Amino acid sequence: MSITSQYTNRIFTDKLEKWALALLSLVVLGVIAYLSHLSPGLEGGMDSYNHYLIARYTWEYPYLFLDQWGKPLYNLLASPFVQFGINGAIVLNCVSLIGCSILVYRILLKIGINNAWLGYILTLLSPIFLDNTISSLTEPLCALLVLLTLYFYIDKRYVLSAVMAGFLPFARSEGFIILFVVFVFIVIIQREYKAILYTAVGSILFNLLGWYIEGEPLWIFTSNPYIKFEMSGINICGRGDIYHYFRAGHYTFGKIASWLLVVGAIVYVIRWLRVSRIADHAIGIILCSFTLYFASHAAIWWLGKMGSCGYVRVMVVIAPLASIIMTYGLHHLFLQLEQKLGDKLVLIQRGFMLFVLLNAIYTPYRYYAYKYPMQVSAEQQEYHKLVDWMKSQPLDDRRKIYLYPYFSMIADINPYNQEEHYDFWASSLQFAEDGDILIWDGHFGPHESGTPLLSLEQDSTWKKIHAIVPKEKIVTLNDKAFEIHVFEKIK
């Protein structure tokens, strides 16, 4: 079928299309700004606040640029934004959202999908992406970097794609998955053997920096918190159903979108088998990246590995890829229907496009409107009570030992100044001095901190000076009751 067939003619003119997309983008950004202004809370829980604090203090403590939990690439790129506060992180997420939408649009045009506006809108209105925009999480930026890597591949700039892929693991650990896919397509399929060295640039550079600054010759592995976590044998979140992410598809991508995603994948496989086994490498690398990423997360949650907690937000990274696959599938599906329906297809196609568009607008509202304006959690409210209590106590000059990052923000504590704060690890308690204040909570205390409440209560070197026990039980991680208990080091 010729690319100039009736279906592939644009529904909109170039000028109208771009103005419409620009206007819709402004509306979406306006809604995000409005909701952000109304929302005292953030999506992503304590992870958001921790990522923000790491990036925020990189300029004062440069070693934080290499923090592998925070992710070096995120720490670097987010640091200028977050100097303006948490809203700076939200601005970065908005930049990532618009950037992803533009790249999806350009990729679809480059591979001959003329109604690329649909892919732009599906990305812009992605339910899971929008829901994680008011946050300081790494997923939105990583989505942009992944898409940029694949765009360079599709544009046949293989060296640039290889270099970008090599840096992805330092935006999120799953970047190793995309790196593997890019390596296979560039080196094995395209036979660009020189790209082998370029895929290693990111790892070599960061490992050398880590070795020089932290003295770890295998810094990539020895400083990776997920590898450490796996080696420790501790499993905080447990494990889940292998079908967890499949069942979450309706509020991750949208119910209709999930079916369109399946259609797109089937269309590609059929074309690969029937048309040419070397055709559509552009969609091939996108579909392989999406599938391997999705399957990896499903597997590690099912197996209870690598500290996975089954968070659906990780799918933000591949949400733009889903938009491309959906739009690609519709394109070729309608091309096939054109042979049977002829002129009748125009009305059917436009009606269906309108249905998909309206569904894309409705889906984020359907699943996430109830959360906004986003409030602070019940746990965070208890910490506000702690701050109020501390204001009435002569504790300002005491070092605080805790792990709850939100407390750093509301108590105005620099979490990286060891005269003000120690992280609450079981191993750090040996360095506590007389007068230090330990804050144990039900979220981190029995889990990451590795310290049961009873062990502190029975320790004669710690004196309990305050407790906050909610009247109504607050359930936290692993069905534990959330409470706050404050101790003072006395010996």
Structure description:
This protein is 58% helix and 5% strand. It is mainly alpha-helical. The chain has a 5-stranded mixed beta sheet with strand order 2-1-3-5-4. 40% of the residues are buried. It has helices spanning 14-38, 45-56, 72-82, 86-110, 117-124, 127-131, 139-154, 158-167, 175-189, 195-199, 201-214, 219-222, 225-232, 244-247, 249-274, 281-303, 319-341, 344-368, 378-391, 405-410, 453-457; strands spanning 400-402, 421-423, 437-441, 462-468, 484-489. The chain starts with 13 loop residues before the first helix and ends with a strand. α3 packs across α4. It has 2 domains: 14-370, no CATH class; 378-489.
Number of helices: 21
Percentage beta strand: under 5%
Contiguous low-pLDDT stretches (5 residues minimum) are 1-9
**Mean pLDDT, as a whole number?**
91
- The 3D shape can be described as globular
Query: How do the strands line up in the largest sheet?
Result: 2-1-3-5-4
Q: What class would the helix/strand composition place it in?
A: mainly alpha
Q: What share of residues is helical? A: 55-70%
Give a count of the beta strands, DSSP E runs of length 2 or more.
5
Task: Give the topology string: H per helix, E per strand.
Answer: HHHHHHHHHHHHHHHHHHHEHEEHEE
Number of separate structural domains: 2
- How far apart the termini lie comes to 82 Å
Main beta sheet, described?
A: 5 strands, mixed
Radius of gyration: 25 Å
